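Many introductory courses stop at the sequence. We go one step further.
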Amino acid sequence: MVSACVNEPVSADLNAIRHVANGESERGAVNQKRSLVILDKRALNRECFVQVLENYSLDMDLLAYASIEDWKKVKDSHPPAGAVLVCVGGAQLGVSSFHEELRKIAADMKEVPVIVLSDSDDLSSMLQVLDCGSRGYIPTSLGMAICVEAIRLAMVGGTFVPASAVMTMREKFKTRTEKENPMVGLFTQRQAEVAQALRRGKANKIIAYELNLRESTVKVHIRNIMKKLKATNRTEVAFKINELLEDGTRTF
């Protein structure tokens, strides 16, 4: 289960996340007091974060430590962990030692979700964090209210990433696809379908039947394809298209 949100409009995002979290809670979340374990090596940061977080009704004990080891020393004196929030600066995300530490925390906590809070909005950093076993990534560019709801979502089995990351991923995939397919931008969708049929040696009547076109329309498409490829016959069309696709990684 993946939920995504962006900074604006905040109210709509919060309602969407709350709807998922509340629905999951009603279906079986145990109503037991839990602790939110906040890990941040920067003492001032974690102390300030706890003070701000106290203004939100998380109904959890807020425990802040420099490391997971510090929490383990006193965990028996507090309610069990419901979630672990790892706070790091943007520069730390690219360090391999942090990834190793995050994997270890996620493995140690088992069913308890681990969420990362960071200054970075970089998509690759988010993906690396998720690969390390994190159940969410919260950039500090989002507000505290969304941060709280993202923690709740992770606690009922969801995974949180900001919608901006999803949109960036979509654009990257679209751009990569266009670069990999040399036919993109050369033909219209219908011309590409006709050209594919030509490569397979199909007759005009067959092409018209399979694409639900008139045979006269197929002939018009073939003329336009030949013109764009500067080909003089159907065989040359097939040859030139195959030649173009040799440099690509996919066919249309």
